[in-house]
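SAMPLE LOG
Freezer: B-3
Tube label: C17
Construct: single chain, 127 aa
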Amino acid sequence: MNRFGPDFRIFGGLESTAFPMSALGACGMMITTSNIAPKQIACLNDLCMAGKLHEAQKLAIELDELMRAASLDTGPIPIKCMMKLMGLIPTNEHRLPLMPATPELEQQLEAVVKRYRLAVKPTVVSS
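STRUCTURE (predicted):
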């Protein structure tokens, strides 16, 4: 990396390598899990950037199942399904050739959303 100079930046782009890359000096993460757990992913990045690697490692371990869930099918199928389960998007639709999550996958992802308490509370609109 030294050959590229101080302005060269590396970002993690896969859940499976986000923590190790950040711990080794990457300056950020662009991962799909950020769509369903933005505060947790931002905290993981901030801890790494601050050199608090023990705390970051602990958080990465806590987020492991959630991050692995993003890879249970072809992206973005699992993330969009979890976003629907959380109430962030109205439907679990995809452009062809992608298809919505199977009922079995949806059950698996719903369990992850519940374990991580990611469900968004419905907004009540008063008239």
